[in-house]
Amino acid sequence: MLTGIQVALIGGDARQLEVIHKCSELDASVVLFGFDNLQNGSSGITKAELTPEALQAVDAVILPAVGTDDQGNVDSLFSSKELRLTHEHIAALPKHAIIFTGMAKPYLRELCSNEGIGLIELFDRDDVAIYNSIPTAEGAVMMAIQNTDITIHGSESMVLGFGRTGATLARTLQGMGAKVRVGVNKPEYYARAIEMGMNPFYTQELISHVSQVDLLFNTIPAMVVTAQVIANIPHRAIIIDLASRPGGTDFRYAEKRGVKAMLAPGLPGIVAPKTAGRIIADTLTRIIMEDARRRRNGE
Ligand code: NAP
Fold first, then answer.
1. How many Å lie between the centroid of ligand 1 and the Cα of residue 58?
2. Fewest CB within 10 angstroms: 20, 149, 196, 281, which?
3. Residues contacting ligand 1 via CB (< 6 Å)
4. What is the per-residue pLDDT across 18-56, written as a single tens digit (0 to 9) for each?
């Protein structure tokens, strides 16, 4: 339980509703900043203005998926007011406080490190990334269906990168009856792909493997789908790039050649905000409980 723990949510989107629900269910005292348009009547949940004083007794701060921008601004779907996190806010937190976000920009990292406040980037964690790979793969399939006139079943599909997202997506496509090729960079990934009944190849040789591809999914956060690769892709193919901005595709050249290519960021929050919210809520409440237990035991 989170009895006696104060949790502050600053901004966010539909995913935060699950976090609020879970924290409240576990008996935390929840303070919401930037949720003016949200109706709530539950006891233990209050709304406040974002001032340093309001953060003085907070044990955990929960920020949206992308914590702040480079100026400290925090997005909130539930408020039209500006929400900005500054040095004064972080300095007001108790020293044991933890800040949670999906991924942090240098601005937030620097504020936390200057004040010695713990920062946890949830999307960096293996468990969160693996859970998130499920709605990501479903979102990628949705985009493929929306943007093609063929079935995934029987398609020549290719997944670049065989990490947490790539492996889940490759298996999802295989389960739908696609012929799946996976681009890997290590022998152990190659071996795993063979074991899973897929056709692996090393991405250095990507150009020689793309001539028949229908659906090309990239999960590698580096420029891999280069102009030379795109020049060898059939015109009918589509490229769905899941890697974090700016993706790993030469979008300029794809447009020039008339190959449909799209960057598809933030799929879990788009296709399954409730599930994505639960993934975040379950993980961060476990971490807060474990931290509170350690502090109680003086560890
Ligand atoms: P990950 O587990 O690190 O997977 C990336 C994989 O690419 C790793 O296995 C990495 O190998 C491999 N790789 C790197 N360079 C390569 C190359 N030249 N050739 C072949 N493989 C290469 O990361 P992830 O969690 O799957 O996430 C992948 C990307 O998707 C990230 O940019 C992430 O931010 C993004 N993402 C997007 C969404 C969305 O909604 N669009 C959702 C989740 C994640 P090593 O193991 O050797 O590093």
1. 34
2. 149
3. 129, 132, 136, 161-166, 183-186, 203, 219-222, 224, 242-244, 264-268
4. 999 999 999 999 999 999 888 866 778 999 999 999 999
Do 219 and 161 contact (CB within 8 A), yes or no? yes
The CATH number of 127-265 is which of 3.40.50.150, 3.20.20.70, 3.40.630.30, 3.40.50.720?
Answer: 3.40.50.720
CA atoms of 99 and 63, how far apart (whole Å) = 7
Give the Å distance between the CA of 162 and the centre of ligand 1: 7
* Cβ–Cβ under 8 Å, residues 159 and 225: no
d(CA 184, CA 161): 5
Cα 228 to averaged position of ligand 1 atoms, centre (Å) = 21
Please write the tens of the pLDDT for every residue from 80-108: 889 999 999 999 999 999 999 999 999 99
Residue with the smallest CA separation from ligand 1 atom 19 is 185
Report residue 219 as tokens: 């999960």
